[in-house]
Specification:
Blueprint: E1 7-10, H1 18-27, E2 34-38, H2 42-54, E3 63-64
């Protein structure tokens, strides 16, 4: 299996959260950019994004829910 080109993850997950998954991706040496998806407020998403950056992950801008397609 080839590695993903992009990782899109919701901030709220059933058995874990985004910060724990960021730590797991760091340990796995994930190279794909990571985009957060959430309806949470911008400051929380920015904090989680900065956590990812501090772990050396390529963090994209967060996608806010609900998504609207134009």
């Amino acid at each position: 299996t080839s590695p993903p080109d992009l990782i899109i993850m919701d901030v709220s997950l059933p058995d874990t959260d985004a910060v724990d998954l960021i730590r797991l991706l760091d340990r796995a040496k994930a190279a794909a950019p990571v985009a957060l998806l959430s309806g949470w407020d911008a400051s929380t998403l920015d904090h989680i994004r900065r956590v990812g950056l501090s772990h050396g992950l390529a963090m994209c801008e967060a996608l806010r829910k609900p998504l609207t397609l134009e």
